[in-house]
Amino acid sequence: MLSRVAENLYWMARYLERTEDMARLINATTLLLLDLPQGAEFGWDILLQVTGDAELYTEHYGTPEEGRIMRFLIADERNPNSVMAAIHQARENCRTFRDLLPAEFWERLNTLFLFVREHAGTSSDSRHARYAFLSEVISRRHALVGLLISSMSQDNVYQFIKLGRNMERADMTTRIVDVTSAVILPQDQGLQKTTTSSLWLGVLRALSAFEMYRRHVSVQVRSNQVVDYLLKDNKFPRSMKYCLGEMEVALAYLPNAGIPAEAVRRARRRLDALKLANLRPDLLHEYLDQAQKDLAMVHRTIQGTYFAREDTGFDGVPSGLLLNAAQA
Fold first, then answer.
1. Alpha helices per DSSP H over the chain
2. Superkingdom of this entry's organism (predicted)?
3. What's the pLDDT tens digit per position in 265-283?
């Protein structure tokens, strides 16, 4: 396989996952705000910090305000992490190798792109409309993933898609969990307990994890148990540990995988070593920041091993085509 094709597959999968995960992050924050009692504080600008887009937002919009932030995160293609920019980039990457994928996949991806382009500009008119629009984006993206899983051979093409999908998913899981550390709890002890439970319930629902958490962990929503489940459970598809495991499996199918595979194992060892009992919000933020750095290192090893090469296959010849790594 040509390295430029491998790179486009990887980034198509990342951008598709980013489309869904940004929608999840915004919807999770919307639900979180609805559940906050009097005395608790949370600003929409926290989303900009979580996604790493605060500086770019200030450059184009100035003062943080909900409507402007929503336009920036949903419809503004100047923001490479926006829903519109992500689905556009996924479509552009897919166009170059349509013959490698099921024909129906391109048709559905193009339909999703057109849907987002038509509705993204008006989705910030109300919270209800925004939530419905983003939920539809998530649903349609699920159909795309299901199509790939059910109709593609598990060859190198599929493994690069799998790598990209799980890389982006693991990163966004840590970011959605991190949102809760930015909430200032009310002073009342009773309200603090209620608020904390509501926060983590919202996080579980944002990641479609509530039912599985109740089934495998507890009917009670406790912060430390939720964090442990979303980071360290090895069976839930959106946990960081599960995603790292899927990446390791994908790399096992690919040649020259030694360095990326070791980076994945190193990230898993650090994750396994985390002590999550009696975890303070500031310490949780520190842990999640390190987890994101570990994922960035895994990405760099994948890029250096498979994408920085001439279009002659995986033969180690220095090269080539690199997409904008700053958009990772």
1. 3-35, 45-51, 54-61, 66-74, 83-95, 103-119, 127-151, 156-179, 189-206, 210-216, 223-232, 240-253, 258-272, 281-302
2. Bacteria
3. 999 999 999 887 767 777 8
